[in-house]
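@channel anyone free to eyeball this complex?
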Amino acid sequence: MKSLFKKHASVWILIIFCLILSVFLANRNHAFFSLKNLVNILESTSYRTLLAIGMTFIIASGAIDLSIGSVLSLSAILTALCLHQGLPVWLCVIIGLASGGLMGAINGVLIHLTRINALIITLATSYIFRGVALIITLGSPITKMPQAFLKFGSGDIFGMEAGVTMAILALLIAFPIMYQTKWGHYLTGLGGNALALKRAGVRIGFYRIGCFIGMGLLAALAGIIITSRLNSAEPNAGLDMEMYAITAVIMGGTPLSGGKAELAGTAVAVFLLGLIRNGLTILSVSSYYQQFITGTLLLIAVIVAELNERKNRIA
Amino acid sequence: MSNTILSIKDIHKSFDHVTALDGMSFDIHEGQITAIVGDNGSGKSTLIKILSGNIAPDKGSISIDGTDYSSFNINQTLKLGIRTVYQDLSLDNHKNSWENVFLGSECMRGPFLNKSYMRSETLKLIDKLNLHLPDIDLPIRNLSGGQRQGLAIARALRSACRILLLDEPTSAMGIKESHMTMELLKHLRADGITQLLVSHNIYHVFDVADRIIVVKAGKCVADVYTEHSSPERIHDMLLEYEHREVSR
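replying in thread with the prediction:
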């Protein structure tokens, strides 16, 4: 039990933090512990969970992706345009997902071939993808989606939006991939020592590009869910989403330098950030405080992670 | 004399205007430890990088069991049974011992990693090599230099190994750990594993090698059997060549 706590210390700390916060919020407002409010938190964190799962893989591989908000937006716009052309909903969703995968592939190929830092490449592509979304729409949202599409992300499954089911499903698939397959093993290997992996005969480009394609697909899925929920595809959707995902990943215990992944920590961190947002609403605190609190939490998480890493290096 | 297992013929390699290898040629015999000694910048590590498939030579050929290759990549060398222990060891500090031993050649059970099998095979391997590792399930970042070296050698020997390349295996080690590594190399020779050892520690080389090739400025300048030579003589050879070069 002691070793389990030590191995996943960040996850347990976040869970304890969630419990303390829940008790505090329940004391302040009894409506907090209602099923409706819990469902509300899960629904508001569903698409953020998808982004954070993808970002966990990316950061564990020693990279970063600042373009996910733009990928989300452009995929949503392309899906909406296809829907307006009268194409079947399933085909539009596939086109939207494929466009996300393609944008991810562009990121991965550029990073692998040029060997330029992922931060710079994805910063540049984030402007490019966002720019394309703005050029296509002239800055205006695309609205009035077909009824069948509105059920895709906001339809009801077990009393919750379909987006929540998709996020839970994505987590259930991500866990075995990360910890039980070659994919997860090699992605953390890329973050740990990419040269060692290459010298062991592993095609590191294949795994690096594959990881970015996966991120693109998840960002596109998040974009489609948001579009379905809001009945509108916005060129400015997903702004700051990359920062939110990075915050959740780092808070969850995945080191920014890569080499290991803490998926459970990411999931709890996304929930905690949702809880904070919900708590601020319940307490009628201005939403302006949200960014301040999120930034403070990220700063604390990064400092704790760095101190822990230094301690490990010295040991 | 034992059979020639690897033959290097007239290998050239330059990086921009710097010549690293300038027509290097020699043979490696089966079951022996052949050491390459030379000063920094003499081309030793470049040769290891070529033989391990990390870089291609500009000119020349490499013959393995009589088959000529102008160059090969990492996967080809692994298929040919050439295993390399790099100077930096190429280990992943975040992974544990058995994950490092199986890195790149993981055993699978369907789509999933067969962790219990890899763990038990690693235990057998470290037992066979008489390595002392504290806990094979912990990340390797806290292992000592000698333990890490042993682990890198264990990884090289996990699958069929015909030629083991070792690049400066004792460069970052203390006296006790260097001794442990040298004993391990002797143990491997007794098992019939052909080794090519690159070092600039002449005394370590004399402790384990059967044959010594002295390199200078990318060329072989001497090829002697240790039983017919001495560390002082090799030392003199290196200095003599240097003086000759300076006086030209």
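from a first look: Helices of chain B lie at 44-51, 74-79, 97-101, 115-128, 145-157, 175-190, 202-208, 231-247.
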